[in-house]
Amino acid sequence: MKEYQTITEISGPLVFAEVDEPVGYDEIVEIETADGEIRRGQVLDSSSGTVAIQTFEGTGGIDRKSSVRFLGETMKMPVTEDLLGRVLDGSGNPIDDGPDIVPDERRDIVGAAINPYSREYPEEFIQTGVSAIDGMNTLVRGQKLPIFSGSGLPHNDLALQIARQATVPEDAGEDEEESEFAVIFGAMGITAEEANEFMDDFERTGALERSVVFMNLADDPAVERTVTPRLALTTAEYLAFDKGYHVLVILTDMTNYCEALREIGAAREEVPGRRGYPGYMYTDLASLYERAGRIKGEDGSVTQIPILTMPSDDITHPIPDLTGYITEGQIMVDRDLNSQGVQPPVNVLPSLSRLMDDGIGEGLTRGDHGGVSDQIYAAYAEGEDLRDLVNIVGREALSERDNKYLDFADRFEEEFVQQGYDTNRDIDETLNVGWDLLSMLPKDELNRVDEENIEKYYTEDESVEVTADD
Question: Considering only CA atoms, which of 394, 403, 414 is closest in space to residue 442?
């Protein structure tokens, strides 16, 4: 191992040093300061005898007298099943005062994309206990379904609710061992207050026992944010494909991750892309999101819920825009619903789960699921349009039919979407609430639901019947 004292320049989180032999991309580096402190870093660029090193602990105290050692290997994550229940920092070091981690092996954090030929198509339902997701935008094993939110909205509360409630309903005939479920929670650039809130909730509800938590705080180096999601996903892949777990990976906040990419790009004096973000941001995000999925012949699965805050609530911003291209839908957290006190404030109309149709129906959720979802979408969309009309002509100008759709939209938000962050609804309860709402409408309006399901689940409004008899 060669040691160099050839640092030529320090720029932001980057240290530039001259070398006289080839150095590998992503190779781990130790930088020893003049007072003996060791800083870790990673090779970001190596060309023409000069290497660019991004440091994980900041560049304060590093000068020309500091020495640089190249370790000859890329960054690795020590993985073991004993990680469940542990809290780690953004670099993978324990911060929960627990025992040292004794790994089964050490895995490269970059990981390899799943060979498309080896992928199993995602089809099995994951129950989050949130009606707006389970009923209208169903999550399936192996899917990547992001949550698009805005600054100040309660996406963290929704993330915690999903983390503690998510389960994989199993058929009675399946082996119980296959139903083990784990949550990997990767937080990037969050405040200490948010971190305390997360940890209090995990410990209060007991969700920590089946979770691995990675915490990168706002005052931690931005460079560490580029490593945190890769550590989390490496752990998830080990638990899923080596130990047979169904793993749900929640990554928050991807906006902070992309800001770290922009900061590093600016320090390297790269030519910026759209709005100053690196031109390779699409590729970088894809290298994270595409690590979700199922593999043929393997019991486990990796499902991803990345969370991002859209700057200025702009869905055309590069971060949500590129994320939408790569992932399979989005869950939209709505500012208007939040101001009305709806919890969780999920707007189902612009939300989408592209794999929903394959993960619902008989044997997965319930035979009427698809029809109920389609009918509720149609009725709620019509109610939303009528709200705009009411603002112009007033409610008195609307027909009796239109008034029913307006009432439907109000009750849908109050009874279906609104459930609080501590209510865990199974899929039957969610669909039954949906039928209660659809029963407000005349049967001849239900043109997206099978007749046999209408006969089975539709409940007549007794007050309407009495009036008709009179």
Answer: 403
